């Protein structure tokens, strides 16, 4: 029985199925139809949530190639052993398709699943503007391409960022003659992403922070512990969603402990994406104070659920639990909370608040950077709300 499948399309469905080995272990296999014949690709991955996410990424690539007519009949493009960076053969790289796929093959091993999906989505959009299989990479006119992209998407900046990265990579690899990066040049004329336009930190002051907690306690108590945890740790929401009890070490008697942040669960197009390591591919130990320990002790492990912050899963039986569905929290409850309080902060503001508060309390900024898996420069430019910091300083 398929454990996961992509959406149906005119060319058929790529399914992620299980195949039992002689030893009794379940391995993931992709099955699909091509030109009326059944095809399969063994991934040599054990059936785990993380490996299912990897398998679904490969399935999405095959599905995209089937739809766009770019399917590799040898299946070499989709074999995981090819994900490791290899020295690219510079012979025959002419088209946009050739350079795009060569770049992706070289970078794929270092990319998280979310990044792979973004790149695949951008390539699918690019297909609506030009034919990458026929267009020559060296002949692409950035201005004309932008005009075509504007007719089909609002993600033209993101696509040009990828093309710029491909251009720089190709020159460094000796695959393209050294020439000005025309894709990078046009980026200065394109509208910036929302997060680039508003990089100013936006923390809650002490009064707003308490109002947010009170709102969740009274209106959405199932998320109250989760929001409070974000404010107590400054971790990314995706890290809190993916937090399991095996990452938590607490000694209530001596009021000591730490949390090992080394994984996350994010969402893209409504699909949960499981990732190892932090956003920066690192793991870190976060020290627990008495308040955080007390919060964790109020959340006893639920039988059958590994997650610290659990909720009833849509496709699970009665009484069974899964991790929090972040899109539901943000769209249904967080936005409502902000509207009721007359605020417009994002959920990420909890991270700004924690960092700003810790600096106000005199903790070294370099230590806070280690706690939050960021840099001193990022804290100073993206997280420290200097105006709100004054509110956390001792009065009198």
Describe the structure.
- By secondary structure, the protein is an alpha+beta fold.
- It folds into three domains: 83 residues, no CATH class; 89 residues, no CATH class; 187 residues, Orthogonal Bundle (hpI Integrase, Chain A), CATH 1.10.443.10.
- The protein is 43% helix and 15% strand.
- It has 16 helices and eleven strands.
- Strands 1-2-3-4 form a four-stranded antiparallel β-sheet, covered by helices on one side. Strands 5-6-9 form a three-stranded antiparallel β-sheet, with no helix packed on it. A two-stranded antiparallel ribbon has the order 7-8.
- β7 and β8 form a beta hairpin.
- α13 packs across α16.
- The N terminus is likely disordered.
Nutshell version of this structure?
This protein has 396 residues and is of the alpha+beta class.
Give the SSE layout:
Blueprint: E1 4-5, E2 15-20, E3 26-34, E4 37-46, H1 49-68, H2 96-107, H3 113-129, H4 142-150, H5 156-172, H6 182-187, H7 194-197, H8 206-219, H9 224-233, H10 237-241, E5 248-251, E6 256-261, E7 263-268, E8 271-276, E9 284-287, H11 290-297, E10 310-312, E11 321-323, H12 326-341, H13 349-360, H14 365-371, H15 376-383, H16 386-392
Antiparallel strand pairs: 1-2, 2-3, 3-4, 5-6, 6-9, 7-8, 10-11
Helix pairs in contact: 1-3, 8-9, 8-12, 9-13, 13-16
């Amino acid at each position: 029985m398929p454990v996961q499948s992509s959406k149906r399309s005119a060319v058929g469905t790529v399914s992620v199925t299980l195949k039992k080995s002689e030893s009794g272990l379940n391995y993931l296999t992709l099955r699909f139809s091509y030109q009326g014949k059944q095809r399969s690709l063994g991934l040599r991955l054990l059936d785990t949530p993380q490996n299912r996410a990897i398998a679904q990424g490969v399935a999405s690539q095959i599905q995209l190639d089937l739809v766009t007519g770019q399917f590799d009949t040898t299946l070499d493009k989709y074999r995981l052993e090819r994900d490791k960076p290899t020295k690219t053969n510079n012979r025959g790289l002419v088209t946009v398709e050739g350079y795009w796929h060569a770049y992706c093959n070289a970078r794929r091993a270092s990319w998280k699943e979310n990044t792979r999906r973004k790149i695949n989505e951008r390539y699918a959009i690019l297909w609506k503007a030009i034919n990458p299989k026929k267009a020559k990479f060296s002949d692409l006119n950035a201005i004309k391409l932008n005009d075509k992209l504007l007719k089909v998407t609002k993600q033209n900046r993101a696509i040009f960022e990828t093309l710029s990265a491909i251009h720089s990579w190709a020159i460094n690899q000796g695959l393209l003659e050294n020439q000005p990066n025309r894709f990078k040049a046009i980026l200065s004329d394109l509208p910036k992403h929302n997060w680039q336009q508003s990089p100013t930190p936006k923390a809650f002051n002490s009064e707003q922070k308490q109002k947010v907690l009170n709102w969740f306690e009274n209106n959405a108590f199932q998320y109250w512990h989760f929001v409070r945890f974000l404010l107590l740790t400054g971790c990314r929401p995706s890290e809190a969603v993916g937090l399991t009890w095996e990452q938590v070490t607490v000694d209530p008697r001596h009021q000591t402990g730490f949390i090992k942040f080394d994984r996350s669960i994010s969402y893209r197009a409504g699909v949960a994406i499981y990732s190892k390591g932090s956003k920066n591919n690192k793991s870190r130990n976060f020290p627990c104070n008495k308040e955080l320990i007390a919060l964790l002790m109020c959340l006893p492990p639920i039988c059958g659920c590994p997650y610290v912050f659990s909720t009833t899963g849509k496709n699970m039986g009665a009484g069974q639990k899964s991790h929090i569905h972040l899109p539901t929290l943000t769209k249904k409850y967080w936005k409502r909370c902000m509207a009721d309080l007359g605020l417009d902060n994002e959920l990420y503001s909890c991270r700004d608040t924690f960092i700003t508060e810790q600096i106000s309390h005199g903790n070294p900024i370099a230590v806070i950077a280690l706690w939050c898996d960021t840099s001193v420069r990022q804290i100073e430019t993206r997280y420290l709300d200097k105006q709100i910091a004054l509110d956390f300083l001792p009065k009198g």
